[in-house]
Amino acid sequence: MFAHVDINNCYVSCERLFRPELEGKVVVVLSNNDGCVIARSNEAKAIGIKMADAEFIVRKNLKEHNAVIFSSNYPLYADMSARLMNNLARYTYTLMVYSIDEAFMALGNIQGIDLDKHAATISANVMRHTGLPITIGVGPTLSLAKLANKAAKKQKRPYLLLDTPEKIDETVLNFPIEDVWGVGLAYYNKLVERGIKTAHDFRQLKADFVRKQMTVQGWRLHQELWGKPCNVIRDVAERSKGIESSQSFNTYQTLLDPIEEAVAMHAATVALKLRQQNSMALMLTVYIRTNKHNVKHDQHYPSITVKIPVAANNTHQLTCVAVQALRAIWQPGYNYLKTGVRVTGIIPAGEVQFNLYNSYEHSREQKLSGLIDELNSRYGRGTLRMAAEGFDKKWVMKQEFLSPQYTTNWRQLITTK
Amino acid sequence: MLRVKKQRAKRDVLGFRLPMLTYEEPELDVSEIIVIDPDNTFFMRMGSDAMTAYHILPEHVLVIDRTLTPVSGSIVVFYHEGDFYTREYVPVANHLELRAGKPADCIIINQTQNFNCWGVVTLTLNPVLQPQHKIGRYARVCTC
Questions:
Q1: At CA A293, angle to CA A291 and CA A298, rounded to 5?
Q2: In the predicted model, what is the mean pLDDT of residues A345-365?
Q3: Does residue A408 lie within any of the structural domains?
Q4: Are residues A67 and A81 in the same domain?
Q5: CB A416 to CB B85 under 8 A?
Q6: Hey, what's the signal peptide range on this chain (chain B) (predicted)?
Q7: Are A60 and A89 part of one and the same domain?
Q8: Among A132, A100, A124, A155, which Cα is nearest to A23's?
């Protein structure tokens, strides 16, 4: 048996833990640069705020309902997420962290366990200890566990157990097909064409037919909905195939210098992520974009992918390559709004192919990057950085409604009376 | 809770091995006895002199554990009418007293089901350095 656990309205719940008066109020969290809505309280959903609504479009509606708005405070969300995951790990031998607010737990083969009691215990303890509201769905496969979770939310229950075929039959009967995990827009359109509206309808299809029409992914889903496991829990994170760092500017940028600073910052972030997973990259892409929504401006979306001379993960080299690449694509006369750096061709750090001419030349830079990481992890991110990242950073994103970093900064603790 | 112990920084010794290297133990880490359950421990700061009688002075850092259930006499942090408070938790007959040093600072909660304990304070950090010592990095001993 598997459990799927997620935090209800994750980012909003993290903010509410330290602002309990926001319970029952309309609360939204905005994306980077305060662009659009990325998290909504149930009350915000009720007044018709949709996911990814642009802030300036829903501004009036939010104001009318006295909504509380937050800029995204990722240090806080990441810390609360880690706390939740560590708590969940106490109740299972295998935990797969699926995203910042979701995880799968293996619950089978635990000796003498009453699943219903176990789920109730996890639910009560984790909610009390972390202060975050969670929902738990339990089922014989990952897809059914995820389905159980959604069904539990609809029934406003903290957890739902699908441990018998009867319970599964009952739950899938009216479960909308578009809410099934893995059914995207393409599959949804295909299925609705054939009059399939619920998970129950989908289950009634013949397995051979599903395989022909929906590739092996659809077939796996079909099997899983019948309780035959096809997906397995992977508790070791896979090496990511690409790493990207990007962000919009707060205003249009027409000069090269500030864009260079931003690109240097993204390159440093990407390099850090590479080092954290102990891998190196062979290719680096830099892109810049104008605002496609502003029809008055000339549009320009150049992008360039360059080969890094020798696979690297040190800040020095990647910054150098990224800035050079940017200079090759930047053109005067455009109002740029966004830039990003992406690396691909990621290989384990131990498998780097050197060539005749560079043998060991970069080992000093490698050591320097390690030292920078150590100092930054002790004294805070950005303590030591490349001068290319700039000092005044006039281009950094807007965060007008940022909450304090209650759990990660000694200077921003809550003061009690 | 499981916590990875830091190993003492090792120094390479040239020539011969020091005999004591065989007996090395990880160094003492004070966070081991201050934070029992790191995943569920939060920090706040005392902002008033209401709890001076309990040796909790303004500016003390409070170590708060959410896994503990308050019992009579616990020092708890709770949210009440727009503010976080630190008080002694004393259930009496059919109401709840949240006591402070002075009666004026006490809070009485009649409907106990409305009371939501945020966490139990396990200890407070009280810096006792003299002012002339509070310079450089020593200015930040348990303060900010």
A1: 55
A2: 69
A3: no
A4: no
A5: yes
A6: none
A7: no
A8: A132
CATH number of domain containing B75: 2.10.109.10
Q: Mark which of A194, A226, A258 sits at the end of a domain.
A: A226
Instruction: Check which CATH number belongs to the domain holding A43 and give it.
Output: 3.40.1170.60
Chain B residues with beta carbon closer than 8 angstroms to that of A78: none
Question: Which residue of B45, B67, B118 is in closest CB contact with A415?
Answer: B45
* Facing B144 at nearest CB: one of A83, A411, A416: A411
Is the reported ipTM for this assembly greater than 0.90? no
Contact A181, A219 (CB under 8 A): no
Asked whether residue A159 is assigned to any structural domain, the reply reads yes
CA distance A366 to A343: 18
Residue B36 domain-assigned (yes or no): yes
Kindly indicate the confidence band of residue B56, based on its pLDDT and cuts at 50, 70 and 90. very high
Q: Does residue B15 sit within a domain?
A: no
Residue B40's domain spans which residues? Answer: 32-138
For residue A189, the enclosing domain spans: 76-226
In this predicted structure, the answer to whether residue A33 has a pLDDT above a threshold of 80 is no
Which residues of chain A does B39 touch, with a Cβ-Cβ cutoff of 8 Å? 82-83, 86-87, 129-130
For the range A110-118, what are the long-range contacts, defined as Cβ-Cβ under 8 Å and sequence gap of 24 or more? Answer: A115/A1, A115/A161, A115/A163, A116/A161, A116/A163, A118/A91
Structure token digits, residue A127: 């909610």
Q: Mind listing the pLDDT tens digit for each residue in A249-288?
A: 878 888 888 888 888 889 888 888 888 888 888 889 999 8
Report whether pLDDT(A50) > 70.
yes
Answer whether B66 sits within 8 Å of A130, measured CB to CB.
Answer: yes
Nearest CA in chain A to B66: A129
Whether residue A378 lies within 8 A of chain B, CB to CB, comes out as no
Instruction: Decide if B16 is inside a domain.
Output: no
Judgement on whether residues A81 and A222 belong to the same structural domain of the protein? yes
B45 CB neighbours in chain A (<8 A) are 413-416
Query: b vs e for A368-391, b when ≥16 Cβ sit within 10 Å of the residue's Cβ?
Result: ebeebbeebeeeeeeeebbebbbe
Instruction: Look at chain A and report how many structural domains it folds into.
Output: 3
DSSP E strand stretches across chain B: 41-46, 61-65, 75-80, 83-92, 95-99, 107-109, 117-125
Same domain assignment for residues A147 and A182: yes
Contact state of B42 with A407 under an 8 Å Cβ cutoff: yes
Domain CATH code at residue A83: 3.30.70.270
How far is it, in rounded angstroms, from Cα A141 to Cα A181? 12
- According to the per-residue pLDDT averaged within each range, which of A14-18, A92-96, A240-244 is highest? A14-18
